[in-house]
Amino acid sequence: MPVSVAALKERAPGEGRVALVPEVVTKLVSDGYSVMIESGAGETAFFPDSAYKKAGAKVVSLAEALKATIVLAVNRPPATTLSKIGKGQVLIGQLDSLADAKELEAAAKKGVSILSLDRLPRQVSRAQSMDVLSSQASIAGYRAVIVAAEAYSRYFPMMMTAAGTARPAKVLVLGAGVAGLQAIGTAKRLGAQVSGYDVRPAAREEVSSMGAQFLTTSVESAVGEGGYARALTKEETATQQKELATQIAKFDIVITTAKVPGKKAPVLVQKETVAAMGPGSVLVDLAASAGGGNVVGSAPGKRVVTKGGVTIIGGDMLASEMANAASFGFAKNLSTVVESIVKEGEIVLDPEDEVTTALLIGAAAKGAKK
Ligand code: NAD
C-alpha cells in the first residue's frame, strides 16, 4: 500500500497559502505516494482542484483528507480538526509550537507524530531544503519593498525627465537576516539608495556585499544562541532606539524585520521617531503582531496613515499575499520532510536523525535520542 499524503485547506483568517502545489503532487505521485487534497484548498493561491487532479491527486473532503497517513498543513489546524487526527498518523506544518505547544503535546500523547517546522535546526545543511522560515521570509522581504513602493508617492529610482530630475528614494532596512537581505536586494534593483542595519556583526559584510550602506549604532554586537540575535538589555535598547531615531528621519522608506527567536520582537522605531519622519514616508513592519512589533503604531495586516502623513504598514502576512509563490516554496519544503521520514513505504522516525528528533513534539521526541 502506498503511503497516503493529504493537504488540508487553511482556515486561518487572511491565510492564502496551501501546503501542496500541483508540481509537488506530481513528484510525490511519481515517487509512489497516494496524494489527496482537500477540495478548494489551493483556490486562494490560484491552484484550482482541476490542476491537482491533473497532477495525480484525489480531490477529497476534509473528513477524507484527515484519514491520510501524513497530513500536511501550513498553519496549525483548528482544535476540532486536530482532534480528528489519530494514533499512527503524522502531522507536518509550521505549527507554532514554540509559543504554545500544549494542544500539540496532547495530540502527540494520543500517538500522533507531530513535526513542527518552527523547530527546524536550520544550521544543519540537510535541513536547508526543509526551511519554511527562510522560504517564507525571503518572499516577505521582497513583498515588503513592493508594498512600500506602492504606498510611496514618489519614485524609487533616480528619474531624469524633461520636467526635471527626481532623486532616488532612501530606503533603510532594519534587521538584515533572510527577509532583510531580500528586501535590500529588491530595493536596490528598483534603483533606491539602500542602507541596512543589524546587531549581528556578520550582517555587516552581507549588507555591504549587496552594495548597501551599513548603518552603525553603539550596540555593535548582540549575538545569542545558534548565531541568532539575542534580546538586548534595557540599556542597549534605549541606546539603540535613541541612535536609530536620529538616523531614521533621513529616510523615505523604512522596512523592519527584526526578530529574536522565542522572544517578543524588539521595538526599534518609537512613536516620536515616526512623528519626526517626513510626510509621505512609509514604514513596513514585518514583525507586526497583536502584541506589538518593531514599530510603535503598526498593527497586523493594517495600513495606517499618521497625522504627520507617514504610512505604517503591518507586514505580518506578506508571504501569504504572494500565496502562489509562497505555497510553492512551502510545499517543496514539506515534501522534503515527507521524503525524509518515509523509507520503503513505511514511516520511520529515526531516533538517530538530528533533524527528525528536533522537529518532533511531545512524547515521541522525548523518547528519541538526540
Ligand atoms: P530572524 O527572523 O530571527 O531575525 C531577523 C533579523 O533581525 C536577524 O538578522 C537579527 O539579527 C535581527 N535582529 C534581531 N534583533 C535586532 C535588533 N534589536 N536590532 C537589529 N536587528 C535585530 O532571523 P532570520 O532572518 O531567520 O535569520 C537570522 C540568522 O540565521 C542569520 O544569521 C542567518 O544567516 C541565519 N540563518 C542560517 C541558516 C542556515 O544556517 N541554514 C538558515 C537561515 C538563517
Structural class: alpha/beta
Number of DSSP E strands:
17
Q: Please report which band the strand proportion falls in: under 5%, 5-15%, 15-25%, 25-35%, 35-45% or over 45%.
A: 15-25%
What hetero molecules are bound to the protein chains?
A: nicotinamide-adenine-dinucleotide
Calculate Rg over CA atoms: 22 Å
Shape assignment: globular
Q: Termini separation (Å)?
A: 31 Å
Helix content: 25-40%
Main β-sheet description:
7 strands, mixed
The overall pLDDT average reads 95
Counted by DSSP, the helix tally is 14
Poorly predicted segments? 365-370
Spatial order of the strands forming the largest sheet:
11-10-9-12-13-15-14
Q: Give the assembly state of these chains.
A: single chain
Which secondary structure elements does this structure contain, and how are they paired or packed?
Layout: E1 4-7, H1 22-30, E2 34-38, H2 49-55, E3 58-60, H3 62-65, E4 70-72, H4 79-82, E5 90-93, H5 102-109, E6 113-116, H6 132-151, E7 159-161, E8 164-166, E9 170-174, H7 178-189, E10 193-197, H8 201-209, E11 213-214, H9 234-248, E12 253-256, H10 271-276, E13 282-285, E14 303-305, E15 311-314, H11 318-321, H12 323-341, E16 342-343, E17 346-347, H13 354-359, H14 363-367
Parallel strand pairs: 1-2, 1-4, 2-3, 4-5, 5-6, 9-10, 9-12, 10-11, 12-13, 13-15
Antiparallel strand pairs: 7-8, 14-15, 16-17
Helix pairs in contact: 1-2, 6-7, 6-12
The structure holds nicotinamide-adenine-dinucleotide.
Residues 122-123, 128, 131, 133-134, 137, 174-180, 198-200, 203, 227-229, 232, 257-261, 266, 268 line the site of nicotinamide-adenine-dinucleotide (NAD).
